[in-house]
Amino acid sequence: MNPVAAGMSPVAGVRPGFRGWWVLAGLAGLVAVAGLWVSSSYNGLVRLDQAAQSQWAQVENTYQRRADLVPNLVATVKGAADFEKGTFTAVAEARAQVGKLPPGTLKALGTDPAAFERFQKAQDELTTSLSRLLVVAEQYPQLKATENFRDLQAQLEGSENRITVERMRFNEAAQAFNSSRSAFPTVLIAGFAGHRFDDKPYFHAVSGTERPPTVNF
């Protein structure tokens, strides 16, 4: 039988197009590998994003814990000392500004760097006003003998320490996300996702100081 007449290649009896199937199979394999890479990279960004948002929630919790202490602290100091009104007014106004901040998530702040700056500014102003309140309180030794004040002082000190730690941990989580997001070729996937994977902002030291306010007497 004539191999050409039978539809066979005259070379080794191979049908025409057999090599094309191997090419298609190779292309399909490349597409599958690319799909796995895209999926892995995307899921990696999601995990890092969720880690940053989880740490952001911890930051919010520590700030809220401090804010909840303010009314009792002010009331206790006010009842034991004759402070100038400006001291309490500054604390009250700073606490009010913190209360006006919407309980948003990092996702909202990440798409609006100005919102993050407003958040940090409001919290830093409360930090500064509390520091001033406690410095003035040093002039009233009778406060040291007040059990309620000592308890609030200890709680505030603990809150400030937690805030410092949680801010540091958030910065670490944000750095891990930003480093992965900016690396090539993962940055291409982040770009296609739009604002879903914007860079995370960082906390910076309070202007004029690198440490939380001293609350020990």
SSE run: HHHHHH
Contiguous runs where pLDDT drops below 50 for at least 5 residues: 209-217
N/C terminus separation: 107 Å
Using the coordinates shown, work out and report the CATH topology.
de novo design (two linked rop proteins)
Q: Any idea how many domains?
A: 1
Proportion of residues in extended strands: under 5%
CATH superfamily: LemA-like domain
The coarse overall form would be rod-shaped
CATH architecture: Up-down Bundle
CATH class, anyone?
Mainly Alpha
Number of helices: 6
* Content-based structural category: mainly alpha
The biggest sheet amounts to: none
| Total beta-strand segments | 0
Helix content: over 70%
Structure in words:
The protein has 217 residues and is mainly α. The protein has helices spanning 18-80, 85-100, 106-110, 113-137, 147-182, 186-192. Helix 1 (18-80) runs antiparallel to helix 2 (85-100), helix 1 runs antiparallel to helix 5 (147-182) and helix 2 (85-100) packs antiparallel against helix 4 (113-137). It is rod-shaped and about 95 Å long. The termini are far apart.
